[in-house]
Amino acid sequence: AQTVTQSQPEMSVQEAETVTLSCTYDTSENNYYLFWYKQPPSRQMILVIRQEAYKQQNATENRFSVNFQKAAKSFSLKISDSQLGDTAMYFCAFMKIQGAQKLVFGQGTRLTINP
Amino acid sequence: GAVVSQHPSRVICKSGTSVKIECRSLDFQATTMFWYRQFPKKSLMLMATSNEGSKATYEQGVEKDKFLINHASLTLSTLTVTSAHPEDSSFYICSAHNRRTSSYEQYFGPGTRLTVT
Q1: pLDDT means per 10 residues in chain B (117 residues)?
Q2: pLDDT tens-digit map of A52-105
Q3: 3-class DSSP state for residue A84?
Q4: Between β-strands B107-108 and A32-39, what pairing exists: parallel, antiparallel or unpaired?
Q5: Backbone phi, psi, residue B30, to 5°
């Protein structure tokens, strides 16, 4: 079974700073997807960024980028020039490509951006 | 992105009654829908996977007779909490997926807060 671990329950940074959220996972699969989801106070889940395991290049979406280390099974999220609207819970998630394509979520990191 | 709705957004019911939560994909066909439960300040826990036209697959520890899931069409799945108890109070979230057109994307509904008194 796959597991996803987020070791930082809470983080807090000042607006405009850069912050990195950690995520590690365990799997015997070779092909899979990894995701970062954001859950703001509204509780609507929002996809931030995704990474296909077969791609070596790290995914980037505007101010959001990942550091994907497949051998180390690590998938961290970097938020540059953080904004107040980035305040939310962030969940790292894993999905197998084959089979039911269920998402396995980490415990979450509560990120607060301070003005 | 695609839109998924849930109804109701909030519901309060009495102990022993049943309550139904609807999950609809508004602008795409959802071959698969997933139901999650989220406790306060916790992560999402997958309860079951439902494929259109077939029986739902429940995760270990989830009572299928208590949490009835129906996925009768490509745009609607329902979760019925039967004989609800206060411990069933939680935030329930659905997500929808079309395996025929997307290899990975799941679209989430806004969630339903259930309170059992």
Answers
A1: 91 97 92 94 93 90 95 92 96 89 82 97
A2: 999 989 999 999 999 999 999 999 999 999 999 999 999 999 999 887 789 999
A3: helix
A4: unpaired
A5: -100, 105
What type of residue is A37? Y
Task: Among A90, A94, A102, pick the best mutation site for testing chain B contact (most B Cβ within 10 A).
Answer: A102
Can you tell me whether residue A105 is helix, strand or coil? Answer: strand
Residue numbers of B between 51 and 90 with CB closer than 8 Å to A: 57
Which residues, in sequence order, are bridge partners of residue A89?
A39, A110
SS (H, E, C) B21-43: EEEEECCCCCCEEEEEEECCCCC
> What is the rounded CA–CA span in Å between residue A98 and residue B96?
17
Chain B residues whose CB is inside 8 A of the A104 CB are: 46
Identity of residue A47: L
Q: Do B97 and A101 touch (CB under 8 A)?
A: yes
Omega within 30 of 0 (cis) for the link into B8: yes
